[in-house]
Amino acid sequence: MNYICEHFSSIDSTNEEAKRRYAGGDIREQLLSADFQSAGKGRNGRSFYSPENTGIYFSYLYPNPENEPIGNLIFVTTVAAVLVCDAIRKVTKADAGIKWVNDVYVNDKKVCGILAEVAYQDSVPGIIVGIGINLSTTDFPEEIQGIASSVGTFTDEELRKIKKEIIGSVGDGLWQFFRNSGNAAYKECILSSYREMSLVIGREVSFGTENETEMTGIATGIEEDGSLSVKLQNGEIRTLNSGEIHLKLLR
Ligand code: BTN
Predict the structure, then answer these.
(1) Could you give the CA distance from residue 28 to residue 150 in angstroms, rounded to a whole number?
(2) Where are the alpha helices (DSSP H) in the chain?
(3) Predicted pLDDT of residue 80
(4) What is the Å distance from ligand 1's center to 71 Cα?
(5) From 6, 32, 36, 48, mutation site for ligand 1 pocket: most ligand atoms within 8 A of C-beta
(6) Ligand 1 center from residue 58 Cα (angstroms)
């Protein structure tokens, strides 16, 4: 694997640092990690709570050396969720799973968020994959107390080892993804892992957008493009393909 790693004790946001570097002419494939983020960014303009030492916050920058067109970022986020879930299971033995679209959960609560973004160097788009994992965080802000949690309780020494191993495993997996993204067998392998890790299939879910009334049904499967099929109470099958749709697990 040929990417560089750099660690910060404190930074505003590893995604923003990767963006600044790329825009400023840095074309090294790189992984930037931090012990603390003062302005961690989440999806849809939200912030990502990133307190000191209790989590892993990192971003992988793919500089797109051949200036290839960048498709939608859903698949890279799916790959990252599979890599994180696999690394948490292997390194910590926690029973992690993926809630559609791409949040990693332990004990029915979110422990990891992923934010993929496009960055620009002149007009050449690169990809930034930002990953935040709550390892042993306990003091969540009130507004996320009901949904966020941590992987477990660890000593400082265990935390150091877990961070190193998870970052290495996910970083190497992303390096491989960027060399295999057009490979059908690779894609099938990721989808099959994603289905095995899914916490949603077979469960009763409710879903909706901000302007829509909530609907309820049973999640029946993950399609080839990563969309989620849900069988409604009237037998109709709905295919959900946007992360803008919020989804709740009911039973
Ligand atoms: C989400 O669940 O809304 C996505 C959260 C992504 C957080 C990570 S932490 C490392 C990287 N830097 C950021 O500012 N955000 C991402």
Answers:
(1) 32
(2) 14-23, 74-92, 156-180, 184-197
(3) 97
(4) 21
(5) 48
(6) 8
Going by their DSSP bridges, the two strands 215-222 and 204-208 should be labelled as: antiparallel
Structure-block tokens of residue 241: 């393909």
Say what the pLDDT of residue 226 is: 82
User: What is the best residue among 30, 115, 129, 134 to mutate for testing ligand 1's pocket, by most ligand atoms within 8 Å of CB?
Assistant: 115
**Ligand 1 proximal residues by C-beta, below 6 Å:** 13-15, 37, 40-43, 46, 48, 57-59, 113-115, 130-132
Length of the chain: 251
Class of the CATH domain delimited by 204-249: mainly beta
Here the tokens at position 82 are 């599979």
- Predicted local distance difference test score (pLDDT) of residue 249: 78
pLDDT tens string 133-142? 999 999 999 9
Task: Kindly report, residue by residue over 62-121, the tens digit of the pLDDT.
Answer: 999 888 888 778 889 999 999 999 999 999 999 999 999 889 999 999 999 999 999 999
User: What residues does CATH 3.30.930.10 cover in the chain?
Assistant: 4-197
- Region 4-197: CATH code: 3.30.930.10
Ligand 1 mean position to 50 CA, how many Å?
9
Q: Where is pLDDT greater, at 40 or 206?
A: 40
Distance 249 CA to ligand 1 centre (A): 23
Query: Which residues of the chain does CATH 2.30.30.100 include?
Result: 204-249
Q: How far is CA 182 from the centre of its chain?
A: 20
Determine the pLDDT at residue 243. 60
